Amino acid sequence: MDQRPPQASPPHHRPFFLPSRPYLFKGHSTAYTISCLLLLFSFLLLLHFLTPLQPFLLLRIARSHDSHPDTACDYTFGRWVWDEGRRLDAYTEDCPFLDPGFQCRRNGRNDSSYLYWRWQPHGCDLPRFNASEMLERSRNGKIIFAGDSIGRNQWESFLCMLAKAVQNKSSIYEKYGNPITKHKGFLSMVFHDHNLTVEYYRAPFLAAVGRPPPASPDHVRAAIHLDALHWQCKRWIDADVLVLNAGHWWNEKKTIDA
Ligand SMILES: *[C@@H]1O[C@H](CO)[C@@H](O)[C@H](O)[C@H]1NC(C)=O
Ligand SMILES: *[C@@H]1O[C@H](CO)[C@@H](O)[C@H](O)[C@H]1NC(C)=O
Ligand SMILES: *[C@@H]1O[C@H](CO)[C@@H](O)[C@H](O)[C@H]1NC(C)=O
Ligand SMILES: *[C@@H]1O[C@H](CO)[C@@H](O)[C@H](O)[C@H]1NC(C)=O
């Protein structure tokens, strides 16, 4: 489970001020936020038209198998189906990139029914995940997950799925030597032989979180700045694929705690 967001900024005189890196952004927070958003947006547009990375296209568009062979199929439009004929076997809990807390079976889960659900897009089928193909298509690329612990789960699963196609497990490593245990910043896994980086940024709100405004009551320990992306967002700009997730922390208890 997630912990509270870190509080890591000196006090400020304005309530809505990008807090985390004052020496960089002091007096320029709005401009910074806008340029960050613009860059991110133009990057997404660019990605849409120019990406050399195939997995992104693969995920969005596939030829339909129905009676309209020239219609693109949107993989995001579909439903979960129970399929006893297709047990998920993309990886096991022996995978070295799983947090102990995310190893369901070792932590006592004794059913395996969750392994039989698969995503069924309307009008076409998803090809089965093929790790070596995915690695090849992602060569020289950067794939980033940012969000809460659900995003972290997805990131770890993805690492484990890719790692199945890598013989030499030592050729997969954290760029800065950080261990994959509970970690508060970001982790950058390198698939050395494919020059591929798969990163995770812990950003439960995706927005910036910092000190409360001056003269706040004592129980207000932090402020969520809805007008600013997470202070690490400048590191997301050169991603070929950016996977964002949020939601779980936007509940009354957690936003009020923040
Ligand atoms: C699995 O867990 C359920 C609920 O905790 C329990 O009733 C059941 O006996 C367990 N089955 C096995 C095989 O341990
Ligand atoms: C995965 O993809 C590779 C390369 O495209 C292919 O050679 C291999 O047969 C595929 N594996 C499966 C299980 O489909
Ligand atoms: C590795 O990929 C990066 C882009 O992520 C690229 O700039 C670099 O040239 C690549 N290195 C090699 C050796 O291909
Ligand atoms: C495995 O990968 C590591 C790190 O890239 C490398 O130093 C080592 O030589 C590789 N081992 C083999 C058997 O290829």
TrEMBL record:
Places the protein is found: Golgi apparatus membrane
Keywords for this protein: Golgi apparatus, Membrane, Signal-anchor, Transmembrane, Transmembrane helix
Protein's membrane topology: Single-pass type II membrane protein
InterPro entries cross-referenced by the UniProt entry: TBL (IPR029962), TBL_C (IPR026057), TBL_N (IPR025846)
Keyword Ribonucleoprotein (UniProt): no
Signal peptide coordinates: none
GO molecular function, one term: xylan O-acetyltransferase activity
Keyword Transmembrane helix part of the UniProt annotation: yes
GO cellular component, one term: Golgi membrane
Pfam families the UniProt entry points to: PC-Esterase, PMR5N
Domain (Trichome birefringence-like C-terminal) ranges: 126-255
Residue spans crossing the bilayer: 30-50
Primary subcellular site in the record, as a coarse category: Golgi
Domain Trichome birefringence-like N-terminal: 72-125
Family: Belongs to the PC-esterase family. TBL subfamily.
Name of protein: Trichome birefringence-like N-terminal domain-containing protein
Organism of provenance: Musa troglodytarum
